[in-house]
Amino acid sequence: MIIEGKGLTKSFGGLTAVKKVDFHLNKGEIVGLIGPNGAGKTTLFNLVSGVYHPEEGTLSFNGMEITSLKSFEICRLGIARTFQIVRPFLKMSCLENVLIGIIGRGDQREGRKAKGEEARKLLKFVGLEGHEKNSANNLTLIEKKRLEVARALATQPRLLLLDEVLAGLNPSEILQALELIEVIRTQLKMTLFWIEHVMGAIMKASDRIIVLDQGEKIKEGRPEEVVNDSKVIEAYLGESDA
Amino acid sequence: MDNKKLWISFAFIILALFPPLFLSQYWLHVMIISLFYVMMASSWNLIAGFTGQVSFAHAAFSGVGAYTSGMLTVYLGLPPWLGILIGMGVAALLGFGLGYLCIRMGGIYLSLTTLGFSEILRIIITNEDQWTRGTMGLQVPGFFVEYSKTSYYYLFLIVTILLLIVIYKIIHSEMGLTFRAVLNDEVAASSSGINTVRVRVLAFAISSAMAGLAGGFYGHYLMLITPDVPSLGQMFLVLAMAVIGGMGSFAGPIVGSFVLEILSEYIRIYGEYHVLLFGLIALAMARFAPEGVVGILGKKWRREWA
Predict the structure, then answer these.
(1) Which of A75, A89, A152 sits opposite B184 (nearest CB)?
(2) Structural domain count, chain B
(3) Is A155 in contact with B192 (Cβ distance < 8 A)?
């Protein structure tokens, strides 16, 4: 088990966004996290990445308790993420965006030149070659998403949290993005925890699916088990009248 | 820094060597004060323009530098350069403390807290007159045995250039990159492994130390320190210089300082209204041209100096 959450609860005012959720990911797995809007998916990601801290429950990464660690500490342990609404550093160049991820590792031994080289390689890896000096602000949506992936990879994570990387992309862009994710999985052998609304894509790619509804985990299992589950269908389509 | 920039900087430095040969004593004084403001506005730009922390305590930190050095030289007989170094250290420590206090605050809350700090410091200095001489002003020794504006001009020029080199190095270092990342998006920076708290406090301490240094030299040049040094009027002048010149760029605050200081000499006859006028201009600039005069003067030119 690379990461494990037990009884995670987080509320905002009167609203409980995540309610007593247990989950885990095994090394090398791709796990999809799905659920209707407002189900608490992104909140769960924010708990794992330390943006929020749970009121109840514990999180452990590689057997180490990380429940109360700060975002940057969690990142340095090996958990990186992308954001549902993209958050590249808009007023910085693409190269500088990736450099932040490299600097974020906190390794003082590497020279400046080596870091620049590595950042260039990562930009090439995600398909942004030639955009090094371009301001992140000038990128298209899919390019911004690629840049975020490059920045996340630059921190050398062992677990990557992808928050709706396919949202807002057209069908051909979705295929490109899926190719990239496949390469990340096979070449970099990374564990992926992945929120997505594009069902076809996530069902095909995931080893396991976790379904959240109104903050609670309502189903977990192999993709084909999940799609035929009555509770899941109900959560998405509403209660049947029959 | 590429060759072209290096030559341009070199040309400016050579040009800056000549003013004492032809300027009157009065205009030489204006140049020295301008250099002081260059130090103030450029170092304020480091926190406000590069990490997005709009602090109103910058003039207060220059006051910390000026009074620390002033009192050490007057009461303990320390030489001014040592007094200034200690003053800079005290400003750095206070900056570290205030920066730490403001960690969880952003935007308007940080500004209000620093505003409060600034006023408290001014009131303490005004009231503790057995040490600070209050509004009467503290008479402090100068740098040179024989008073000469030319000597002061070169002293200020050297210190300003050194300070600007340090600021340039910081902006273009990894530290500067993390400053900008925090300004751009604190959550994203933190999620990329950047210790944003450390970055912000560090920026605050460095910038405060620079204000302390500038204030120290200012005091030993004027040889009379009053609570006007750490006043909010002074603060708003520095703010206007950075904003009008162009925040977040290297050249902006330098240009802004010279332009506004020289301009304020011309409109001095109308009283202290120049701060009000500059405030209004700064407000309009912040709204309509956030990149300042330097930004307006052409993106290409700006990029080469930023």
Answers:
(1) A89
(2) 1
(3) yes
Residues of the domain holding B154: 26-229
- CB contact A109 to B (< 8 Å): no
Contact B68, B87 (CB under 8 A): yes
Q: Check CB contact of A78 with chain B, cutoff 8 Å.
A: no
Among B177, B187, B195, the residue with its CB nearest the CB of A100 is B177
Q: Does some domain include residue B272?
A: no
Positive/negative CA dihedral, A152, A73, B206, B274: positive
Q: What single string gives the DSSP state of each residue in A192-228? A: EEEE-S-HHHHHHH-SEEEEEETTEEEEEE-HHHHHT
List, for residues A106-144, the tens digit of each pLDDT value.
877 778 888 999 999 999 998 888 998 899 999 999 899
Structure tokens given for B110 = 């940080």
pLDDT (tens place) for every residue of chain B, 306 residues total? 577 888 888 888 888 888 888 888 899 999 999 999 999 999 999 998 888 888 999 999 999 999 999 999 999 989 999 999 999 999 999 999 998 888 777 678 888 999 999 999 999 999 888 888 878 888 888 888 888 889 999 999 999 999 999 999 999 999 999 999 998 898 999 999 999 989 989 999 999 999 999 999 999 999 999 888 888 888 998 998 999 888 888 888 999 999 999 988 888 777 777 778 888 888 888 888 888 888 888 665 545 555
Closest of B84, B44, B34 to residue B208, by C-alpha? B44
Report the b/e string of B83-106 with b at 16+ CB within 10 A.
bbbbbbebbbebbbebbeebeeee
Cβ neighbours for B259, distance < 8 A, ≥ 6 positions apart: B241, B244, B245, B293
Domain ranges of chain A: 1-78+158-167+191-242
What does each C-alpha distance from A107 to A100, A101, A103, A155, B194 come to in angstroms? 12, 11, 7, 10, 12
Quote the ipTM score: 0.87
What is the C-alpha separation between B30 and A101, in angstroms, rounded?
A: 46
DSSP at A83: -
Strand ranges in chain B using DSSP code E only, listed in sequence order: 138-139, 224-225
CATH topology of domain A1-78+158-167+191-242: Rossmann fold (3.40.50)
pLDDT band at A24 (very low <50, low <70, confident <90, very high): very high
B89 falls within a domain: yes
Is the Cβ pair B185, A87 closer than 8 Å?
yes
**B296 domain-assigned:** no
Is residue B286, in this structure, part of any structural domain at all? no
- The two structure tokens encoding residue B18: 């000549």
